Structure formats: structure tokens, C-alpha cells
Amino acid sequence: MINKTLPIILILSCQMLVNQIGHAQTKSNAAGSTEGVPISNCPSILNQNVLRLQDEKPQNLCQYSGKVVLVVNTASFCGFTPQYKGLEALYEKYKNEGLVVLGFPSNDFAQEPENNQQIADFCENTFGVKFPMFTKTAVKGESASKLFKELATVTKTTPKWNFYKYLISRDGQKIKSFGSMTGPQDKSFVKEVELSLNDKYQK
Prior knowledge:
By secondary structure, this protein is α+β, with helices and mostly antiparallel strands. It is globular. The strands form 3 sheets. A 4-stranded mixed sheet has the order 6-5-7-8, sandwiched between helices. The chain has a two-stranded antiparallel sheet with strand order 1-2. It contains 5 helices and 8 strands.
């Protein structure tokens, strides 16, 4: 006699197995990736945990893996502060081609006394900044963040002032530094950005 309940039991068992596998994959993705980018495929220079400026929520920079990354230490009360406008324009122009600008406010040069929320409001309201910004960060010396220590190690130079710039290639293997006097709209600098964007490396 054929057991008519057997197919139903098999179907239910298969569905439970699929659900368990899906749950395990979700847990694995949450632990080992950021916004769909596996940390195992992330350049080491970007495998950094930071806090978003607006709400201080944890972020991992691996989410920008495969992009050309421009890291800038910023300040609200500096002669170079108007570079925010140029950085935002650069980001807006090239973001669809793979550029991301990452801003790290710093008081290392005594020109960023505000708290994180005040900085966020200033950047958005004064310069319309939309590129990712992170909480106040030490960028030089022993107290420098892990990211800036690694940038200094690779390029052999630390930020000399606010709005120092590090341009990281798509694969994270090539990093160039630019001084504060090099504005985001300078032709030579824009050319470097375009060269990095045109690199044949694919994520």
C-alpha cells in the first residue's frame, strides 16, 4: 500500500532544509561581508571599522572595495575648508564611474573643535556634502587611527595639515598622497583620479 503522506513529509523536510541553509547563509553574510562585499575579497587597507558621522553607526570600509577611494582629513575652521565644495563636485561628477570620497574630520591641527553632529550639520548645510563622512579621527602620531597609520606606512607621509589627500586604486595596491595645497579641482589631480578610474582592474 502506498503511503500518501510520504510525499508531503518529503516536501516539508526539503523546505525545512532550504530554510536552514538560507538562515546559515544570512548569518555568514552578516559576519563576513559588508553590503554584499566579502571581507575576504577586500583590500587590507579598506578592511577598517569606522563610525558614520551622522549617527555614529559602525561601518566597514570594505563596502567601497573595487572603487577608487579618496581619503581626506577635514576640518571646519581652516583656510582649506572651502575644498569641501570641490570634493563634493568631484564626487558627484565621478561617483557613477566608481569614485568615492571619504571624509575624516580631525582636530589634530586644532581647527575642528565641534562635535560630530555639529560637523555633520556644517558640512551639509554649508557645502551640501553628500559623500560619506566619518566621526572625528586622529590622523597623525601615535594616536592616529589604524587607517591613517597604514596610509602613512604605504606612502611614507602623514597629513601635514587639513585636507591632505590619499588616492587609493580599485585594488587597494596603489596609493598616492597629495598635499593640502592640491585642490580637488586642480587639473593634475583630476587627471590622477581619471587614470585610477580607467584602471583595468575589476572588482
